[in-house]
Amino acid sequence: MFNRDRWSEIIEALTANWFRTVLTAFGVLWGIFILVILLAAGKGLENGVKQGFGGIATNSMFMWTQVASKPYKGMPKGRNYSFEIEDVKAIKQNVPYVRIVSPRNQLGGFQGTNNVIRGLKTGAYNVYGDYPEIIEQEPMDVSSGRFINYTDINEKRKVAVIGEGVRVGLYDREEEVIGSYIKINGVNFMVVGTYKRKGNNGDPEEMQKQIYVPFTSFSQAFNRGNKVGWMAITAEDGHPITNIKEDIINVIKKRHTIHPDDDRAVGNFDLFQEFSKVNGLFIALKAVAYFVGILVLVSGIIGISNIMLIVVKERTNEIGVRRALGATPWAIRGQILLESIFLTIISGMAGIILSTAVIWLVNFQLGKMDTSDMMFLNPSVNLGVIMVALAILIISGLLAGLIPAQHAIKVKPVDALRTE
C-alpha cells in the first residue's frame, strides 16, 4: 500500500545530498545504457549480415562433380563423370527430408566472352538452365513479367528471365523488354520477365546480370542432353542439410560407381554449416554484450551500496529513535531496501530511456540512407531484453541495499541515541 510519509522520507533522504546521489545513480544509468546499446548494435550487425543472404534458403547445399581419386569396380582413378537428370529423382526417392533438388546448367559469365546479343548490343552474362523451384532457394523480386514455370519446362519453351543489369546493358531506358528477343550463343530466347536480386551477398551489381531459362530448353539448345552441371539441394525445415549431406553424396557415389571412401569425387558447399557459424558468432557477441554490460552495472551497484552505507551511518541517530519508539528490524530493513531499489530503478530507467533515444536517432539516420548494401541495419532490442534489464535492476537494488540494511538493524537503540 502507498504510504505518503514513507515516500516523502525516501525522497528527502536521497535529495539531502543531491550531487552525491546523482553521481552514484550515474553508475547504474551508464551500466544499463551500455548493456542496451551493445545488444542493439549486435542486433543491427546481425540484421545487416542476414540481409546479405537476401532471404536465400540457408538450409541448403550446393554439389558438383570432381575427378574420382580412387579406382573402383574396374573404373580407373582420375576419371571424370557428370551428374545426370536421373540423379535428381534418385536423391528425392532415397534420401528423407529433402525438400528441393534443383539441377542446374550454366554457361558464360562476366569473365568470359560476349555470349548474349540483342541488335547491336552484346554482353557477357551468366546464363542458367533452371527449374522454377530455384526462386525459393535464391529469392529474387520479379520486377516485371513472370518467372519460368513448369509449362516452360514441359514444352521446352525458349523463354528467359533477365536481371535488371542485363536490361540496362542491352536495352534503352524506355524500351519495352517483355516480349522482346535476345540471342544466347546464337539461339533466340523471348524475354518473359525481369528480376532484381535481394541481399548484398557476392557482388551486388553482378548478381543483377544473370539470365534464367528453363532447364529443358537450355539442355536442348546447347546440346547438354541429360547432363547436369551442378545441384542446389534444400532440406525440410527442422532437418539440417548437414545431417543428410552424407546420404545424398552416397546416392551419387552408388549411381556413378565411385569408391565409398572417395571424399574428393563429389564437391559440395554446405551453406547451412556456414550460416550456423555466423549464428554462433552472434550468440557469442550477445553473451559478450551481457557480460560487459552487467560488469559495468555491477560497478554502479557497488557505488549505490557504498553510498547507502554512508546514508545509514549519517542516520544512526534517527534509526535509534525509531527503534526506541518500537520500529521492528523488518521495518528498518524495509526502509533501507526500498530506498536502494528506488534509486536503482530510477537511475536504470533513465539509462533505458537514454539508450532508446540513441537507438531511435540511429534508426532515423539509417532511414534516410540506402541500406540495401549495408552490413548494419535496424539496431534494436526487443521487449524481452527490457524486461530482463528491469529484473536486473530490481535484483541489483535489493543486493545494493542488503548490506546497508543489515548494518542498520544491528544498531542498538541506546548506542544510536548517544551518537551525535
TrEMBL record:
Ordered alphabetically, the record's keywords are: ATP-binding, Cell membrane, Membrane, Nucleotide-binding, Transmembrane, Transmembrane helix
Note the PANTHER family from the entry: ABC TRANSPORTER PERMEASE YTRF, MEMBRANE COMPONENT OF TRANSPORTER-RELATED
Q: What is this protein called?
A: Multidrug ABC transporter ATP-binding protein
Residue ranges annotated as transmembrane are: 21-41, 287-312, 341-362, 382-403
Q: Which InterPro entries match?
A: ABC3_permease_C, MacB_PCD, Macrolide_Exporter_MacB
| Family of this protein | Belongs to the ABC-4 integral membrane protein family.
Residues covered by the MacB-like periplasmic core domain: 21-249
In which organism is this protein found?
Christiangramia fulva
Q: Name one GO molecular function term.
A: ATP binding
Identify the residues that the record assigns to the ABC3 transporter permease C-terminal domain, covering every copy.
291-413
How does the record say this protein sits in the membrane?
Multi-pass membrane protein
| GO (cellular component) term, any one | plasma membrane
Question: Key word Membrane present in the record?
Answer: yes
State one Pfam family annotation: FtsX
User: Does Nucleotide-binding appear among the keywords?
Assistant: yes
Q: Give its localization.
A: Cell membrane
Q: Which coarse location class describes where this protein primarily resides?
A: membrane
